[in-house]
From TrEMBL:
Protein name, entry field: glutathione-specific gamma-glutamylcyclotransferase
Transferase listed as a keyword: yes
Species of origin: Gemmobacter lutimaris
Organism phylogeny: Bacteria, Pseudomonadati, Pseudomonadota, Alphaproteobacteria, Rhodobacterales
Top EC group: lyase
Pfam families, per the entry: ChaC
Length: 173
């Protein structure tokens, strides 16, 4: 069983990992396009979390995790509890490319028809929301900074997250 991580799964998979590889999912892009009312915001002040948003000619670099043998059922249950908390994500399999290999990975993509979907927000608006929101798993800015730092550590460039990280630092200084 392989799982594709593009946000917090990169730095906190929450399941036993037998192998991890840098992977590319085509036809999707990483985007702060989901309002978070649980983990990184509240109903009164929603935060933003990352999702895979479909986009023609786009791609998302992330991490493919191979789940440790024997842990597949527990991993699936844990991922569903974590990711399907509000039904804004859809559980699916996407093909990923790792070097010369291609295979399907379980992942969670945004439902563009869900009320929490907010694709197309300007980066400045995203920064202002992220700078101030806090949810059950802590400040929204920590989620952004952890993800951006781990992507950088892996050598995965994401100019939007890099810009957002600096802008949120400026807003919260």
């Amino acid at each position: 069983m392989w799982v594709f991580g593009y946000g917090s799964l990169i730095w906190h998979p929450g399941f036993p990992v037998a192998e991890q590889r840098i992977a590319r999912a085509e036809g999707w892009h990483r985007s702060f396009c989901m309002r978070s009312i649980h983990h990184r915001g509240s109903e009164a002040e929603p935060g933003l979390v990352l999702a895979l948003d479909r986009a023609e000619d786009a791609y998302c670099m992330g991490v493919a995790f191979r789940v440790a043998e024997g842990a597949e059922a527990d991993t699936l249950a844990a991922l569903r509890e974590r990711e399907l908390i509000s039904s804004a994500y859809l559980e699916t399999h996407v093909p990923v490319h790792c070097g010369g290999d291609s295979f399907d990975c379980l992942t969670y993509v945004i439902d563009p028809d869900h009320i929490q979907y907010c694709g197309g927000l300007a980066l400045e608006e995203q920064a202002r929301i992220i700078a101030h929101a806090t949810g059950g798993r802590g400040p929204n800015r920590d989620y952004l900074w952890n993800t951006a730092q781990h992507l950088a550590d892996l050598g995965i460039a994401d100019p939007d997250l890099e810009w957002l990280s600096q802008r949120v630092r400026d807003l919260t200084a």
